[in-house]
């Protein structure tokens, strides 16, 4: 049976998005989180006000460049990988595009994209997740990935 991994990203803006942070949570409990520094002037007002203040809490999460991010991410994926493919679940197509750019082209063949289908049910379960976890923050890539995994595991 394929391993399920929930993916979320935070990025600069909807037009010409640039990765700021990426979070992945495996159904087996392993987590990956990394951040890249981007100049605030490249970010939308929403990102400057909501996302950027959540960054920098874990100095070990900061990657100096895309190469370091790619190396860390591919290493993590290979460490947790079992014999079966991994279904990478996401709720926004830009998340997959930024993940693909982060791991490099082509995406490893063991990473299978799985867009979220039932958005209405997902939203209800996310509401429950945030209610149960008030210490976590929406628009933090790792926290959002945890919420996404919660919303798909309860089905």
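Q: What amino acid sequence fits the structure above?
A:
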């Amino acid at each position: 049976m394929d391993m399920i991994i929930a993916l979320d990203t935070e990025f600069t803006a909807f037009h010409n998005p640039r990765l700021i942070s990426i979070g992945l949570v495996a159904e087996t409990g392993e987590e990956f989180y990394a951040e890249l520094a981007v100049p605030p002037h490249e970010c939308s007002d929403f990102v400057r006000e909501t996302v950027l203040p959540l960054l920098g809490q874990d100095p070990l999460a900061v990657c100096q460049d895309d190469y370091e991010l790619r190396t860390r991410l591919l290493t993590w994926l290979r460490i947790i990988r079992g014999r079966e493919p991994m279904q990478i679940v996401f709720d926004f197509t830009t998340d997959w595009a930024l993940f693909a750019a982060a791991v490099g082209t082509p995406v490893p063949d063991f990473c299978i994209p799985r867009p979220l289908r039932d958005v209405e049910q997902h939203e209800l379960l996310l509401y429950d997740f945030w209610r149960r976890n008030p210490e976590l923050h929406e628009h933090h890539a790792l926290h959002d990935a945890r919420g996404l995994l919660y919303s798909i595991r309860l089905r």
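Q: And what stands out in the fold?
A: The helical segments are 45-51, 66-80, 93-103, 119-132, 141-153.
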